[in-house]
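User: quick one
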Amino acid sequence: MDSDEEDFVFYGTPIEREEEVTSRKKKAVAEASGLLRTLPPWKQEVTDEEGRRRFHGAFTGGYSAGYYNTVGSKEGWIPQTFTSSQKNRAEIKQQSILNFLDDDEKGEMEGRSLGTSMKFDTFGFTAAEIARKQAEKEQQQRPSIIPGPAPDELVLPATDSIGVKLLLKMGWRHGHAIKDSRTNSLYDARREARKAFLALSSDHKAAQRTGSEDVKGDLGNIVELPMDNDHQSPHSTPVYVLNPKQDLHGLGYDPFKHAPEFREKKRSRLHEDKELVNRKPLSIKDNLFAFRSGRVAPGFGIGALEELDAEDEDVYASGYAFEETYVQEIEEPTKQGVDKTKKRSGKEQGVLPGFKLASNSDYQLERFDPPVIPKDFVPCHKFPALLDMNTKFSDGSPPEIPPPEDNNLKILIEGVAAIVACCGKLFEDLSREKNQSNPLFSFLNGGDGHDYYSRKLWEERQKRNDRKKLELDGKVVLSIQKMTAESRGKILGERPLERSSKDLSSASTSSNVKLQFHLSDTFTKPESFNEVPDAAKPFRDDPAKQGRFEQFLKDKYDGGLRSKDSSGASNMSEAARARERLEFEAAAEAIRKGNWGKETSHSNQQMWDMPTTTSLQFTSAGLEKVAQVEELMKKMYPKREEFQWRPSPILCKRFDILDPYMGKPPPPPRLRSKMDSLIFLPDSTKPVKVEETAAAFTDSLSVPPPGSEDITSKEATGEFQNDVEVENVERPVDLYKAIFSDDSDDEVENSSPNQVEDPEKKNGAVSTTLNRLIAGDFLESLGKELGLDVPPDLPNSENKTRVSASQKDTVNSKRGNVDTLEVENPLIETLSSEKNRSGKVEHGKGAQVDRHRNRSSRSPVDERNRKHFRRDGHRICNSDSETTSSEDYRDLHHSRSKGREKGSSREKSSRRKHSKHRKHERGDSLSRSHHGSDKERGDAKREKRR
Amino acid sequence: MSGGGGIGELPRKEASVLKGHEGAVLAARFNADGNYCLSCGKDRTIRLWNPHRGILIKTYKAHGREVRDVHCTQDNSKLSSCGGDRQVFYWDVATGRVIRKFRGHDSEVNAVKFNEYASVVVSAGYDRSVRAWDCRSHSTEPIQIIDTFLDSVMSVSLTKSEIIAGSVDGTIRTFDIRIGREISDDLGQPVNCIALSNDGNCILASCLDSTLRLLDRSTGELLQEYKGHTCKSYKMDCLLTNNDACVTGGSEDGIIFFWDLVDASVVSSFRAHASVVTSVSYHPTDSCMISASVDGTIRVWKT
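Assistant: Done. Structure below.
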C-alpha cells in the first residue's frame, strides 16, 4: 500500500468525504443494525442519536445505569419483592396482565373480554363457542354413555362461517373446488409433467435423444391439458358426511378393509336382521347367545368382528382352512364367497343353540403327502388352452346361429362376448348378476339370443386361443424361466396387450357408444374401460404390467368386485406395489382426460422404469442397477420449476427495467386459492415475506434493520391499501370516523419518508383512507360552512384491533390449510433420499470442511411445504406486529428527537393502546417525553391549525 | 475473435506466473477489456495485475478474512469483493479505498457480481441467500434478499435482466426481473459454479459430482455433460471460451481441461498447477486464460 501511494501526486487540500464527516453517525446506525445483534447484552453500549455513549449523569449511574441502561431489572419492570427463600422456597411469581394495568384500566376491562361479535364472526369461532356451550349444557341435563364433556371435535357450530356464506353467494357449492382452478390445474399439470420427467427411461437412452422433441411436446400437452377441463377439476373440497356411528367398532376401524366384497353383504344382512328383530324383538336366543350375533357383546378377541361372517366364525376353532381360502379368494372372489356362505349356512344349521363346535372333532382332515416331483420335471407350465378351463361347457362349438334381428341386441351380444372372452367367465357372472332384471341382458340367462351369444363367445375364444398358442409356441424356449406375471395374467384371463386391439375393435369401435350405453349399469365408467384396448396402453412394453394396469382400471371404474393385487404382482414388494399404484393412478387420470397421446405413453414408459431401478424385483435384468440409477438420475434431472418472484421496485430501477409488478396488487403466491382473496388477508407477495421472515429470522436479538423494514413496510402498505379497500367497500362507511379520523398520520409519513414506519399504524391509517376520500368533499364543505376547525385526532383503535384480529384468525385458518395440503409423495421422496449429496464446498485448504449441511436431503415436496410454512411464518409475524411494532416505536423514538412534535400525535394515539406495557419497554426515552406529553398534545394541535 | 476450436487455438502455453499471494488464491478474474486481472485469496488481499506483462499493480487490503470473489465494473472504476468476513466491499479502484461495506449476510459470502450498469452488487452467500446491494444510494441495506435457496449459494451471474445463481441444494435459479419469475432448474447435484455462455443461451454448471453440465436456459434441458476432471469438495470455476467452442475448467489435481462444447470430448488437458485449480478466467476476446490455484500462483496461458 505504501509503495502504491508513491505513484500518486496530490495537489491541494483533500475534500473531506461525506462518509467521514458522518462516520460517527454511521457507526451508530451500523452498530444498531449489524454489530449490536452479534454482541451479548452485557457488551452492548447504549448510544444516543449522535452515536455517543449515553451518559446518565455522574450521580445517576454514570455510563451504565440500572439494568444495562434500562430502568428494569432482570425479572422485568417491577423489581421482585423480597421473599425469604428459606421459608417458601419454590414460590413462583406469576405475572399476568393485571399486574401492569392501572385500576381504571382494570375497571374498564372488567366483565368485558374481547370477542368477535356474531356479525363479524368470519371463521365461525363464536358460533362454535356457542355451540360448545350449548352442548355442555345439554350434557348436564342428560348424561350420555360416554362420560365427561363432549370432545370439541364432535361439536360443530350450527351456522356457516361468513366465508362459507360468501362463497355460497358467489356460486360455490359444497364439494366444489374453491381454489383458482386455472392456476391450480396448471400447477398440477406441472407436477404431473415432473413426475413424467422423473421417470425418464434408462434403456431408451438413444431413443430419448432423438425423441427429445417428443418429450417437449408432451410436456406442452400436459401443461395445456387441464385448461380444457377446468370444470372438472379432480381436486375438490371433500364434503364430510357425518355418518352416525352405529356399530361398536373402534373409531376408524373397518372390518371390511381388506374384504370389500363383504361390505355389501353385511349391509343387506343388517337390513334383514333389523326386520327380524322388529318381528320378534325379544328373541331369547339372541339374548342368551349374544356372541353369535356379536352386536350385543363385543367381547375379547372377536369383538371387533361384529358380524359373524364366513371368516369370522370360529376364529379359534380348528378345521377351517383359512389360508387356503385366502389364496383362493384372491383368485376368484365371487365364487369363493358364495361357496363360503353356503358352507357356513350348512354348518350353522348343524349347530344347536347353546352348543358350539367341538374344537377337536373326531373327523380328521386326511392329509396326503405331496407327490414326488420327477427329476426331469421342468417347472414351466404351458397353457395350451387356458380359457377352456373356465369354459368346460363350450368345448364343442355351438352351431352357427344367425344374429338376432335387433341390431342393438346383436351389438350388445357381440360386445359382451368379446369382453367375456378376454376377461373370463367372471365377467359373465358379474354382468349376469347385475343385469338380472334388465331384459336386454336376458341372453346371459339363456333367454333371447342366448344361442347367438354362446356362438359368439366361442368364436372369440377360439380366436384368442389360436393367437395364444402361436405366441406360446414361439416362446417355449424362453419360458423355462419361472412363471412370470405375464403368464399368470394369462391364466387369469387378463388381456395381454399389444395384440389385443384388433379383435375388440370390431365390436367396440363401431358401436362403442351404444355398447357403453347398454353396459352402463355394469360399469360406472364404461368408456374408460372400453377405451383401454384401443386407445391407451401406457405400459405397452411390459404386458404383465399392462395387465395389472387394466386390472387396476377395472377395479377403479367397475365399482364391482375387487380382486385387488391379485393380478400376479405377488412377487412385488409393498413399496413397489404402492409406487406402481401411484403410477397407475396417474396414467388412469391421463386416460380419463383423454389426452393420452403417444408422447405420454412414451414418457410413461419411462415412468415404469423407475420402480425397477429402485427396487429391482420385477425385472429380470437387474444386473446393472448402479448404472441404471445413474442413468435415472440423469433422466430425472434437470427438472424445472417456475415460481412467482417479486423483485423489489428499487432493484428494477437499478436494472433499468420496468417493475413488472408496478402499481399492481401483489399477485397471488403459489397455491393461492379464491378463499384467500375472500378473507381479506393482506396477502403480500413472497419476496416481501421472504424479506420479512429473513429479517425476523436473522436478527438474533430481533432488532429490525431499519432499511429493509422500510422497504417492506412500504410495500406492505400498498398491499394493505388494496385489501383494506376491498374490505371497506363491503361495510357501511362510518362517516363520523371518516371525518374525524387522524390526519396527522399522513403528515408524519410525508415528512419523514425515511423513518421507520409502523405497519400496523399504516394499516389503521389506510383503512380510513377510503372513508376519507368519500367523505372528503363533504368534510370540506362542512368545515367551510360551519367555520370550524376539524378536530385533529380521533384514534381509530377499534378499527385497528378488528383488522389485526382478522389477520390472526386468518393465520390460524391458513395453518390448517397448509397442513392439509401437505401431500406425501413417496415417489419423489424415495428418490430424493437416494441422492447422497455432499453439501460441503471447500475454499482453499480445509476452509469449511466441517460445515457440512445436510439440508440438501430435502425433497421437493419438503421444499414446497417449507414455502408454505414460510408464508405462515410471515403472517404470524405480520399479525403479531405488536412486538415488532413496539420495537419500531422504540427505534423511531431514538432517531427522532427533532421531529418529536410531529411524532407526538402519533405517539399519543398509540399510547392509548399499548398503555403501560409499552411504557416500560420504551424505557427512559419515553419517560423523558412522558411528562411533557400534554404539552406536546397542545403543540400538535397548534401545529394543526397553522 | 479467435477462430474455431482447434487445439492450437487453445491457450496452453504458460506466458507468465503471477506470484505474490500468500496462501491459496481463490479467484482470478479478467477485467472487462481483458487488459488487467484481479485476484483474491486467503491472504485477505485483492491484487490487481497486468497479466500480459506479469506485474502487480496494486494491492487492496481491507478484508478481515479470506477474499472469495472479486468483480470489476465495466468501466474499471469500482470493485466489489466478498469473503469470509460476511461483508461485501465496494471499492474505488484508483484510490484503493473502500467506499462502502455491505453487511447483512449471516455467514461467508461466496460470490459477488456487478450488474451491467454497476449500480447493483449482487452477492451470494453461505447463508442461503442472494442479496442485491445498491451502489447508488448510501444505504447499506440490501435492496433485495432472495432466500429461496435451500443451501449455500455458490455462484451468481447476471444478465441485463436476470439474476442467476447456483446453489449446493442442486438448483440453478434464474430470477427474471422483467417478468418477476423465478425459474428453478434442479440438477440433483450440488452446484459449485455457474457460467453463462457468451451468447447467453446456455448455462454451464459445475457440479460436485465431478461433472460440468450444460443447460439450455430457455427450456432447462440438459444439453451436455463434461467429465474427466475431479471436483468433489472445492469451489472451482468453469467457463466457456470466448468463442463458445470449448468448455474449460480446472481440476482438484491441478489439471486444466478443455472439452469440446458439442461432443463433450476432452480436447486438451494439461497440468497447470501443483494443487487445486480454484479459478479460471478467459480473456474476453483473445485466446488467453488465467488460472489461480491453491498453490498461491496465478498463471497466464496463451497460445
